[in-house]
Amino acid sequence: MPPRHVGTLAAVLSAACLALAAAGTALAGDDGRAAATPQSLGGNWYAAAPYLMPLDNDPPDAASVMDATGLKAFQLAFVVAPNGGGCAPTWGGTHPVGSDTAVAGVIAAIRAKGGDVSASAGGYGGTKLGQTCATPEATAAAYQQVVDKYGLKALDFDLEEPEYENAAAIHNEIGAAKILQQENPGIYLSVTTAGTADGTGWFGKQMLEEARAQSFTPDNFSIMPFDGGFNGAASQTAALTTFNSLLRSTFGWDEATAYAHEGISQMNGRSDTGEYFTQADFQTVLDFATAHRMARFTNWSVNRDRQCSPPDNNGRTSGTCSSVPQGAYDFTKYSVKFAGATPPTTPPTTPPGSCTAPAYSAGTVYVGGDTASYNGHTWQAKWWTQGETPSTGGSGVWRDLGAC
Q1: Are 173 and 139 contacting, i.e. CB atoms less than 8 angstroms apart?
Q2: pLDDT tens, position by position, for the chain (404 residues)?
Q3: Alpha helices in 33-150 (DSSP H)
Q4: Are 52 and 74 in contact (CB under 8 A)?
Q5: What separation in angstroms does the CA of 155 have from each of 220, 295, 390?
Q6: Measured distance CA(157)–CA(154) in Å, rounded
Q7: Rounded distance, CA 227 to CA 272, Å?
Q8: What are residue 12's DSSP bridge partners?
Q9: Reduced to 3 states, what is the DSSP secondary structure of residue 91?
Q10: How many whole angstroms separate alpha carbon 301 and alpha carbon 43?
């Protein structure tokens, strides 16, 4: 299964529960309903929310990501059917939404800092609710459980293979989305599907036709222009231009209206098929999206928004790092910019005296093994260096030993 959708469930459940306690938010009643009140965020934040797997792929602390980037919204992934079958929502096929406290804890911690979340249904792995629920109404009822459980104001339908190759399943998913839109006034809905050089593939086009047939219009249709022979930003913006034409021909929109209903979901760093998308590529696509007033700008994923060790991860794609040189959460900051906010320029500092290593000095010569403290972390030089500020990017001379 591709690295963007794999990971380990254990090791995070207790941490998520601790996050719930830290946020000061208990669960009310026996049904496990999250008591945290959703924040009133603008649609710009739901449109910019990058994907985060809260239970897999070594999830970072969401509150720390918010502090470091200014981000206010996350796209939590993925809600699917149980691995053993049935029409009940679960996280990743193994963690029932009805009895969940772990994801509720993550949400509570995010909301305690003034943020909010959307949930993403579908994705690459597992069996989808559209495949196991018998009708659009039954599918909608399953998703409504998720909306009610967490008090959601936004939901994403990530429709890709193999589900979108199943016409009955797509009929259920699109029908469910329309029902949710009608029964939850103001809910923000996005539909995400595969990207190709001609916008989207045959099954993606069939999905758009299904939406037209059901008279369903979400806040946006987003494509994922990666894992399909793409090479940097130019190929992505070309696909977005072609997809705009496809939206126009399908729904009868003019160019501006189509862009106002069009989004992009990128993959930061090295893709599953060995494509590379750097910070410069993200900036180019961001410039395109804002210039054309596109509706959504997101990426897979926050879990991957950190440098691997070694930086290129030996040429492999990982679900927990980007396999390109970067600072922590470099790519998430582009979502913040799309939302209209300014990312912090420096990370929060820790109280004086909390670090035991000498403070970093640009004039000091460091050799392999030397340590220095900088921005609340202890850093160790791998070889001779002078004047290069400690970070996980640059030449790679510094090793982050963790927070003091």
Answers
A1: yes
A2: 345 544 433 333 344 443 444 443 333 333 444 446 666 799 999 999 999 999 999 999 999 999 999 999 999 999 999 999 999 999 999 999 999 999 999 999 999 999 999 999 999 999 999 999 999 999 999 999 999 999 999 999 999 999 999 999 999 999 999 999 999 999 999 999 999 999 999 999 999 999 999 999 999 999 999 999 999 999 999 999 999 999 999 999 999 999 999 999 999 999 999 999 999 999 999 999 999 999 999 999 999 999 998 888 888 999 999 999 999 999 999 999 999 999 998 654 444 445 788 887 877 888 888 888 877 788 888 888 888 888 877 788 888 887 77
A3: 43-48, 62-69, 102-112, 129-132, 136-150
A4: yes
A5: 11, 15, 39
A6: 10
A7: 6
A8: none
A9: strand
A10: 20
d(CA 283, CA 94): 37
d(CA 26, CA 253) in angstroms, rounded, equals 47
Secondary structure of residue 196 in the 3-state scheme: strand
Q: What are phi and psi of 275, to 5 degrees?
A: -75, 155
Q: Letter for the amino acid at 19?
A: A
Spatial neighbors of 207 by CB under 8 A, at least 6 apart, are: 159, 164, 170, 174, 191, 193
Angstrom distance (rounded) from CA 358 to CA 374: 9
Residue with tokens 């049935």: 86
Distance CA 285, CA 335 (A): 11
DSSP string, 55-83: SSS-PPPHHHHHHHH---EEEEEEEE--T
Q: Which residues are catalytic?
A: 160
143 vs 191: CA distance, rounded Å: 14
d(CA 98, CA 104): 11
Residue identified by tokens 């093994």 is: 369
Question: Of 209, 390, 224, which is closest to residue 297 (Cα–Cα)?
Answer: 224
The answer, as to whether pTM is greater than 0.70, is yes
Distance CA 381, CA 368 (A): 5
Distances 140 to 29, 78, 88, 131, 172 between C-alpha atoms, Å:
24, 16, 11, 13, 8
Asked whether 109 and 34 are in contact (CB, 8 A), the reply is no
